[in-house]
Design goal:
The chain is an alpha/beta fold. It contains 15 helices and 22 strands. Strands 14-15-16-13-12-17-18 form a seven-stranded mixed β-sheet, sandwiched between helices. The chain has a six-stranded mixed β-sheet with strand order 9-8-7-10-11-19, with helices on both faces. Strands 5-6-20 form a three-stranded antiparallel β-sheet, with no helix packed on it. Bound molecules: adenosine-5'-diphosphate.
Amino acid sequence: MQSHVIDALRQAVQHGLVRGESFVDGRWRPGGAAAFGVVDPSTSQMLAQVTGADDALVHEAIASAARAGVPWRERTGKARGELLRAWHALIQTHAGELAALITAEQGKPLTEARGEVEYAASFVEWYAEEARRVYGEVIPSPDVAKRFLVLRQPIGVCAAITPWNYPAAMVTRKVAPALAAGCTVVVKPAEQTPLTALALAELGSRAGLPAGVLSVLAADAEQSSHIGRLLCASDAVRHLSFTGSTEVGRLLATQCAPTLKKLALELGGNAPFIVFDDADPASAAEAVVASKFRNAGQACIAANRIYVQRGVHDRFVAELVARTRALTVGSAHDSGVRVGPLIDAPALAKVEALVADALARGARAVVGGRALAGLCHEPTVIVGGDSSMRCAREEIFGPVAVVIAFEAERDVIVAANDTSFGLAAYVCTRDMARTLRVAEALEYGMVAVNTGLLSSAEVPFGGVKHSGLGREGGRQGIDEYLETKYVCLGAINSEPPAATVKPTKSTLPTQTLTTTQ
Ligand code: ADP
């Protein structure tokens, strides 16, 4: 291990950011469920033992979120934004410790982990600003006696189930807009990476988030499924946001049906990366490396199928091969390493199986192709295959770039759309008309042109088809956490008539009544 990772981890412990417990109702709480180990994928060493949250703690987290929700939604958006800004400042102050935690429990190299902390913090900053921009509407009424108002109000208690590949950013991308909107949140992070989420909750509390506004429940794989069922079954929880596999997303959608919860799902991808003849092969290869090998390929928006037009194919492959050879693979703790280990043994076994399938179908590995010690896989480029390979049909989630040649624009659009997924797609071309034509034809939630990096707090991230529902980030991200309320104001077209009661013999003295209809 690099000494500065160890130092930063030691500091995180000394500063009280790491405890093997859940964080519920504003404090660290041991759970009564089985303890589980958090393992460093780079070293296979146990980093921490964490006690799992039992049913009582889950119910307490939901109840405290409901209690805290009333005063939280009554604050102004500006006031909530100020607390988010304080949280953002603390995340930045402790960025080194958070990055070390991410490197240790998730396995991405420290430079990338620092990038993730910045990215995670950017959602908190963005929604601190958006909190005061939750605008309603005044709709012109066809009736002169009526006015129509539309209010946007917090949906209530929200649950968030997050994955291991971005342990900080997937938490803040859900929690920051929810809190900005006036909701309270119970988070269940992935069993592999609970420490970062828990540290974020502790920092939120120190920033002044009231108890119950943000709770984090730690759980192993088995208890995670159970907690998922409890969160889905709870009528108090009005929204579930999930990032993870399509299979689990579908299950959670089913479990949420009885309570009719609003759902946001960020699921799997199978991103096509299309390089046209007119693209610069070196820049296209650079963009593929950025998209493909970041986080060792463990991102749902990572390029999965790289379609390259015949005229530029060989030059592109030469550029990609040279860049892939230059990537250093190994322990995420070692300086200079660009590609760290995969999260666990089953993940590595899956990548190996996909590579073996491609080779068995006649494709060739021109760089790499093998698994290495320490859960690592060689950065690999596979050529000569076609869309029938498993690695072109399934999400690879590993450092394997699969290049498939194509002839015509029409054909590649059909191939790119021939999947049940629809998260991110990439295009490299210098032709503006083609850019628009292809971007419109691709059945994806996001299209990146001449770049391999598209994520940003300012934009709506999300997919279509089996890649999910809803958007995270951007102006749109806060909509998830808001209900629309229509208010109809009647009888307001004129001042109330001053009704005069005629004096009668029995009414003395004369009085004037003001009606308030
Ligand atoms: P991956 O395959 O990338 O690990 P998963 O979809 O299995 O993705 O996991 C993503 C998140 O969903 C994690 O927090 C995990 O604990 C949680 N999870 C997995 N299975 C279930 C389930 N049946 N119910 C609720 N949460 C689950």
